[in-house]
Amino acid sequence: MRKGISLVTALNREKRMKGMTRRSLIAAVAVAILAVGGFSLVRGTSSAKEVVVYKTPTCGCCGKWVEHLEGAGYKVVVHDVNDLTGIKNMHGVPPGLRTCHTGLIDGYVVEGHVPAEFVTRLLDEKPDIRGIGVPGMPIGSPGMEGPYRESYDVVAYSNTGQTAVFGHVEGDEGR
Q: Does the predicted TM-score (pTM) go above 0.85?
């Protein structure tokens, strides 16, 4: 009789262990999903092809830049805010690169009227930089279309604010 009780007790223990293992596995998976999701929220994006854009509600050129990115296949989530200073400070955008909108994608910052081809290059190459930007609002850049295109640089910047040319767009300067 004692052996039968031991066997039932052993089976119950085994059953509890399997249940705990299953529960532990489910808990571990849930924690992993939350950790990855939380990381994405901290970085400001949820996928490599999604751009989170912060802009002011009344800026027309920002809306055109968003359309440019969507036309290049990016999913864009727009947040209209009245003051972008906090966003730019939080993401370390150097003062000389600050413009009317800030985009976040896959851990990078995209500041200003950066052509989609440079965003794609950034994601393909994955350089060890904080972000890229186009200083000012060059005529002919995405969102700033006009009768001609100015030449301009796409500038990369580090976490310490150091800058270097990431790419160049040749203009037609009204020819």
A: no
